[in-house]
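Board notes (copied after class):
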Amino acid sequence: MRRLQWRTSKSRLFFAVFIMLVAFTGALAIRYYAVEPILLQDTAMQPRIKKGSLIWVCKLPQCIDKATFGEIVWARQPNNETLVRKIIGYPGDTIEISDKGRIKTKQKRFMWRGEDSFIETRKFYVPRQGDTLLLSTLNDVEEDYILRLMNEQGLPITIKSTLWQGNREISIERIGSTKLGHRLVSLKELDVLPWQDRRLIEMQIRQAEPGNAPIKIKRQFFIEGDSVPMDTFIVASDNYYLACEQGNHCVDSRELGFFTKERILGRYIKQPDIVKQFVLKKAQEFQKTFFPIKKKEVAEDAPQETPKEEPKKDKNEVEVIKVEVDENGKPQPIHDIKTNNGPERVQQIKRPHAIKAIDPIKEPTKGQKK
């Protein structure tokens, strides 16, 4: 009676609507806080992911923490635009990229076909949180990457560039006679030129200046208002090195530098398993609540039937079958059996359960003993 009242009551309807609202709210929360669909607008990840593909990324912290080498992540650039790239460098890794596209990392060595950003082989360190970097030991690539981290942390940095030939400082004005492409280099832009352009300037001066000593453009970093150059820099967050599948015509860490952990927005997942598991769980709860599986009720006074046990067959037991034989005593095929012509002549033969050829027992002829 109580079950009937519950099934027909308004409380059950209200409870069902409440469960549906909770499930809908949970799905929306997962959509905006756990997973998000991303439409790829470029060809940077081809052939792995084609342009125009819709992918799903997991934005939960545990998804980002579990990202492994070569996995695809969704990240934010310094200009707040987003991109989808793969991880080839972790915090604490040392990466070497040659001018021929050979990549050496802690996890893997591979060939980056079409790579055209590194005009010379360089090795650099991917810093992790808490690292103290000695600025005087950084190479030109690392200087560019660390300078971007300083700007990201909001440090008011000023740069002073000097020109050296071996251990001797020469006039910085010498740079004004060099060219990048078809234009002369301005001293105002020297401080912020990428390492590839500075290297080309050094090579031009090296060809024009007498002597065998190498030419080097050195930079010093100052905090605004302080005349003492910075010696060290403390890294505030873990950093990652992101790259495209394509080696050229693609923007990644080669131009943008390291990506801090805060700029990693999510990790690519082949299927939104979190949403799938949540929906299945809510569907099972709804089914158990409103459509429970009915079990067959048995009266207490009703006699319970005991299951019949099938007799076990002995291996030595034989089975009696009937085979029809003709007038000569030979077994007759089933399709040749005739029941309308004369009396049936049937003999009983015995055979074991094992598959064996069956020979009919002939009738004893006259003169033979039965």
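Comment from the instructor: Residues 77 and 83 are 7 Å apart (CA to CA). Residues 318-352 form one domain.
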